[in-house]
Amino acid sequence: MKxxxxxxxxxxxxxxxxxxxxxLSEADKPGRKVIATREAPAAVGPYSQGILAxxxxxxxxxxxxxxxxGTLISGGIKAQTRQVMKNLGAVLAxxxxxxxxxxxxxxxxxxxSDYKExxxxxxxxxxxxxxxxxxxxxxxxxxxxxxxxxxxxVKPE
Length: 157
Fold this sequence. Notes:
The protein is of the alpha+beta class. The chain has two domains: 1-28; 31-154, CATH 3.30.1330.40. It has three helices and six strands. It has helices spanning 3-21, 76-94, 115-123, and strands at 32-35, 50-53, 56-62, 102-109, 132-137, 147-154. A hairpin with a 2-residue loop joins strand 2 (50-53) and strand 3 (56-62). It is globular and about 40 Å long. The relative contact order is 0.17.
């Protein structure tokens, strides 16, 4: 076989094997990288702490779990907000980013009456550049958490 024919045969073999799997593996998805760090709580389900696609990082929701002990911290909404934001900060750092790169957050509160206190602690992490945000009350959060926060960050090129 000629080199071009071998190259094409290899390409089709790769494509057919990817189709047989049903989904492409991480290595088959150019421009996409899983972000994982021990400085934030490990993912406990079929999700990633973060996915970096190009220069955009999509962070999974974080709870106020201490990454060292794996337990939900106590101390009320302000303490939990600070821990959640530290956990997000660890995922951001693992992707080479920081809070200034965050363009959007979503805050899920177990009780909307915690809004004011959550805001006070949340603002500590965004003193100058404040991302767009949505805040909603939800029925319940995992582990009895008072809040969960997810974010999207973009690293300038």
